[in-house]
Design a protein that fits this description.
Number of domains: 1
Number of helices: 3
CATH class: Mainly Alpha
Structural class: mainly alpha
Strand content: under 5%
Number of strands: 0
CATH architecture: Orthogonal Bundle
């Protein structure tokens, strides 16, 4: 059996890559992919802790399914917003789009 620390290290690396993608990139699609990486890291933590603490229960998998469901809804809504902004401004660069500012 693989130690819990290996899963936590992998999850931390994936989450750090996602944070870097959100903070350093300006393309809206890359930012959405980075948010998905962060949500996948959280799902991995849920499953790893649930398997480590109580191997017979499926609570971690249930929480992971909820996270995946929320992620799917978030991507659908965010991609619709990005497509609308791209049609209006011909760019997906978040720095150049100021349509949501007052």
């Amino acid at each position: 059996m693989v130690p819990l620390e290996n899963y936590l290290a992998l999850s931390g690396i994936i989450f750090a890559i996602g944070v870097y993608g959100v903070l350093a990139r300006r393309n809206a699609v890359v930012i959405l992919m980075s948010v998905e990486l962060m949500l996948n890291a959280v799902s991995l933590n849920f499953v790893a802790f649930a398997a480590y603490l109580d191997p017979d229960a499926i609570t971690g998998a249930v929480f992971a399914v909820f996270v995946i469901t929320v992620a799917a809804a978030e991507v659908g809504l965010a991609l619709a917003i990005v497509i609308r902004l791209f049609r209006n401004h011909s760019t997906s660069n978040v720095d150049e789009v100021a349509a949501l500012k007052w």
